[in-house]
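Schema walkthrough. Field components (list of strings):
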Amino acid sequence: MEGDIMEVGDLKHNPDDMTTIHVEVHVKSSSTAERSDVKMHVLALLKRHCVVFGVYRWTEFDEDFLTKHVQSVAIVDTERKLIVVLPQPIDLKSCCLSIHIFVLNEDGPSTLTLEEDEELSAANHWLLPAAEFHGIWESLVYDSGVKTQLLDYVSTTIYFSDKNVDSNLISWNRVVLLHGPPGTGKTSLCKALAQKLSIRLANRYTYGQFVEINSHSLFSKWFSESGKLVTKMFQKIQQLIDDKEALVFVLIDEVESLTAARNASQAGTEPSDAIRVVNSVLTQLDQIKRHPNVVILTTSNVTEKIDLAFVDRADIKQYIGPPSVEGIFSIYLSCLQELMKCQIIYPRQQLLTMFELETMGFRECNVSELSLVLRNIATKSKGLSGRALRKLPFLAHALFVKTPTVSLERFLEAMDLAVDKQIEERTQLLNCV
Ligand SMILES: Nc1ncnc2c1ncn2[C@@H]1O[C@H](COP(=O)(O)OP(=O)(O)O)[C@@H](O)[C@H]1O
Ligand SMILES: [Mg+2]
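Field assembly_structure (string):
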């Protein structure tokens, strides 16, 4: 029907090369509604609204069905470039809508233990989409479309595998390597990416499985028999892969611990067991990556000296660095908004976004005053990791706020002091090394 909104089923099937807009529909776990009914009501909601500005989330609805069954409806991942871009109006009628309906699994992780009485776990295992991973994607702030690019890469590899494209003719694999300094969100991004893909590909795969391998524990406790344990662990993973309805993500976090062991072994400072374990991990990885429903995610905190064995195996290598000033501003803004929501900062006051400040030419006036203070704090914080930034408002309150509730103005002063303290501590640490 002309002028009506159009829905597509699969993210890669877009008939006329129109922009695809992804809509994520989080259904309440208590709901028993049919997906087709949910979809119908969501389409009607979108039709009523027609035009949205960038990312948008509905959590309250003007009709009973959605109120009863749906937690939220969100237009997601429309931003492709910098974080500070003009939120363009999106006319939903001129787009293809890809609607993803999901329920979160509330169960926490289960451990994949290898021996009945073994208290040390070799891996943690989640069913996706997991309640524990909810919101991580949105909370991570990167410049220049890193997140959407990664998402596009990985969904294309899964799509190619699913279509049985001959990888001798077109070469690609499903191994991702995120590398960069500690605390830049690499582990979180792996979890968020797996969660996102399990939601996006729900039409194709009934389940998502996420297995996080604990590299350190592979070497610690049962060092001498680790080789055998690696084989056992991968046998368990293989069982998950055998279910063709499942999309299986395997995360090997901090691969440098594997490569360090290997190098030490080559230098003769570690027993040759280490090299056996690492080789066994690599062989097993090569085995499982043949299966089309597997994605292997790896991270490394060292950038220069990653073992070539891993670099060569990864097709998608992405450097993840500390956030830019714009990124920092946006992280702080989300922290302050949370504290105002919880009424720890009170009364609620408006803060402008970096984009709004920019359009005002960073001119100082009543409306922009506190936001400009925040920008100065963000500029000063450059170089701190994402992990340090997310901890900063807590430190500011613990160290420099003496009252339970605090005004925004006072809190910004506390943050400024906390940043100074962080920078000072970091410099001291660097001088020690
Ligand atoms: N770019 C970022 N944007 C927002 N939060 C971040 C960012 N980088 C790190 N964080 C925060 O730091 C925490 C730790 O990140 P983590 O994934 O453990 O980093 P890494 O694996 O790189 O050491 C995350 O939970 C997240 O809250
Ligand atoms: Mg990590």
